[in-house]
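Field reference: sequence -> structure
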Amino acid sequence: MKMKFAPIKFQAALAAGGVSLMAFNFLQFALPHAGSLVKLTDIAWADLTVSKILAYSPLIGIMLISTAINLILTIILLKGFLQLISNGKRFNGFISNTSTNITIFAPIASLSMTANVIWGPFSFFIPNLSIQSLILPSLIFFGILWGLLFLFEFKVMKIWLTNELDVDKLNFVWLLDVFAFALVSLTGTGIASMANDPKIASTAAFASLFVLIIGVFLFVTKLAYLLYLQIKRRDLPDKPIMPAFFLVIPIVCLFGLSFYRVMSYLAKTYAFDVSVISFALITFSYVVTIGWGLFTVYLLFDYLRKDFYRSKFSPTQWGMV
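Structure field:
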């Protein structure tokens, strides 16, 4: 039986990409390497202690498997996504549904993650693949994601403002568009910080600032309103929705890292001393992240202890990854 495509399915590819990047980032900072990004060939296995070999080997295996899952799922799901947005009648019917149209941002977030996977984990296993050879195609890809992100946001916003919206049913899944803004900004600022071509770097940085400013505005506005509704409701949402509380964590981290990359671009291009600001941005984002994580675990402790393993699968559980 053929399964019907739903944009929220991209959450699986996104989660796999996130796991792959976790392993890559650890190796990026743990291993000495010649280029800007670590490669498999940079590892001098003969010089490593047994403990380091036992630590790095599983990470490389996890990265390889997660990268493969991300790329395979992306290829499979991309066909359904392109069919959805190319079919005007079907797309308009989907985007007009105020209860599910927010999920249209899941593919944008996932494809942005895939771009970062290609730069890091995928390139890790291909020694001769230069990051600079990927910069121009990455800028074009970023431009497509940038256009789709704002197009979908304008369409969804128009639907919300011109149709009756049951605010009592709003929950933290409503932050999916903000999540997409955060990941698209990460992609753009990544290009800005890595590109050797000043025109490409400046173009990516300028476009990313649009995404960052609007994304942060949406995040603050939506989060404040959702917290107001939650306090007013005085009851936790249904169990399939509860894991969506964790969605705040990656959003804050991604915005913090994106602003950090903007600072790196300014330091490289204009020789600004941004060390203090960069440290403050990263520290602030991770303090907020840890604080929200502890609060969420405490808030959902009964659900995590009693119901998480027994409940049916819900796409919001990917947000926990």
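Note: The mean pLDDT is 89.
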